Amino acid sequence: MAAAILLVGLWAGLVAAGPGSAQAGEVRVAVAAGFAPAAQEIARRFAARTGHKASLSFGASGRLYAQIVSGSGFQVFLSADALRPEKAEAAGLTVPDSRFTYAFGRLALWSADPELVDADGTVLTRREGFESLAIGNPVTSPHGAAAVQVLQARGVYERLRPALITLEDAGTVHDVVSAGDAEAGLLPVSALALETGGSRWTVPADLHAPLPHQAVLLTAGARSDAARSFIAFLRHQEARDIMQRFGYDMPTGDPEAATPPPAGTKPAAPVH
């Protein structure tokens, strides 16, 4: 709690200073690919509020974690799961007491074909199935692991397995489906926030384990006002409003002690 109060106090001071502050700097942020659209909007608002620039690098959470371990120089880590931030914390790569859940992700089945996906997702269980279905890598992408869980819950994983196109991350899934190189894809709802075409089914949360998205301040950002300010901004209502617009569920109560919505008991884990 003390860390949260300190960060909020720092954020309030930076807002008061405004974008013209001489203290303005830059923060390097590793961002889960599925969170990219929301992160870009948050970064724009953060810059307008503080004058700090957030330099965003996108990728699968597992891939970003590997880069952090190898000394990438990232100062903040926005993961699409809790596992990798917890591992970074256990490895001594984070500032103590800085890890928290900033959002919970949701999945959607989406096709660029406006007639393919029905409103209740029964297309998954039709005998003809899909010729191609894109998902994130279930080992490195939390949304990929959740996609496998959805297919297993619907009893179609083994039947559709030959049709699966496994891609690096959620952003790549969106691009491949958008280009028509896969009939459909299971990807974060947030990746579709700006999509007006195609057809989609928002997956019920009880078909996969919760997808807590955790943030943590890395040791490389321990002395950076910009990094601490960015972490604090994620807790601010302005950032939470942005995340909700992009389809995320918000933690209840204090973000530092966030609890998941009642959809399961464990976060989605990598599928090996």
From TrEMBL:
Q: Which GO terms describe its molecular function?
A: metal ion binding; molybdate ion binding
**Record-level GO BP terms:** molybdate ion transport
Give the residue ranges for region: Disordered: 249-272
Residue ranges spanning the membrane: these are none
The protein's matches in Gene3D superfamilies, at most eight in alphabetical order, are given as: Periplasmic binding protein-like II
Give the keywords, sorted: Metal-binding, Molybdenum, Signal
For this UniProt entry, which residues form the secretion signal? 1-24
Chain positions recorded as molybdate binding sites? S61
Lineage top rank: taxon:
Bacteria
PANTHER family referenced in this protein's UniProt entry, alphabetically: MOLYBDATE-BINDING PERIPLASMIC PROTEIN (PTHR30632), TUNGSTATE_MOLYBDATE_CHROMATE-BINDING PROTEIN MODA (PTHR30632:SF14)
Question: Which family does the UniProt entry place this protein in?
Answer: Belongs to the bacterial solute-binding protein ModA family.
Name under which the protein is recorded: Molybdate transport system substrate-binding protein
Give the species this sequence originates from.
Roseospira goensis
